[in-house]
Amino acid sequence: MTDTSLTLYSFWRSTAAYRVRVAARLKHLTLDEQFIDLDAGEQHEPAFTRINPMAAVPALVIDAPEGGSQVLTESLAIIDYLDARFQQTPLWPADPADRAKAQAIAQTTAADIHPLIVPRIGAYQGPVNTSHVTALPPKNRPGKAHGAGLGHSKAKPCNAAWPVFGRNPTGRRSFFRNPALSFATAE
User: Where in the chain is CATH 3.40.30.10?
Assistant: First the structure.
């Protein structure tokens, strides 16, 4: 499909890296996946921090056939690059309003929900206060382990988003140009 080499630094449990893998597969792109064992602390090794000084996955290394390479980080930025660079099977709608709605859903996941389950964020915020969580049965409440469950108040935007974003003209909860795809749903 392309003579540009794409190397994705990833971890099997990283939902951010998973978003990039899903987008690449929807676009029929082949990624050379290099797994960084976050549990073993490989993200802090000099070999990886030279690639991403933030010591986080995903990181996408783009090697162009004419030489030179670039490193992209953060899942939504990588996905935006893949969509702009490899235009077959568009991931985002062409209509600006629909595109903004789809990106809002993706950003809600990445910015409001994703941090609740990321161990490096949990190390800074400490235990999740679950005293306000009453809608979930006790076994599903967060607090036993960082980010366990989605009863935390920051998860509410995800459920509240659907009435705001509504449905696209086809009546489906999909904001893609191709109604068979739904990247926002893949989030």
Answer: 5-85
Residues 158-179, mean pLDDT to the nearest whole number: 49
Per the listing, tokens 């009453």 go with: 134
Token pair for 79? 């996905």
Question: What residues contact 130, with CB distance under 8 A and at least 6 apart?
Answer: 141, 142, 143, 151, 152
DSSP class of residue 30? -
CATH topology of domain 5-85: Glutaredoxin (3.40.30)
What pTM value is reported for the model? 0.68
What are the tens digits of pLDDT across the range 29-44? 999 999 999 989 999 9
d(CA 123, CA 126): 6
pLDDT tens-digit profile of 43-53? Answer: 999 999 999 99
Dihedral pair phi/psi, residue 6, rounded to 5°: -120, 115
Q: How many CA atoms lie within 13 A of 142 on its CB side?
A: 22
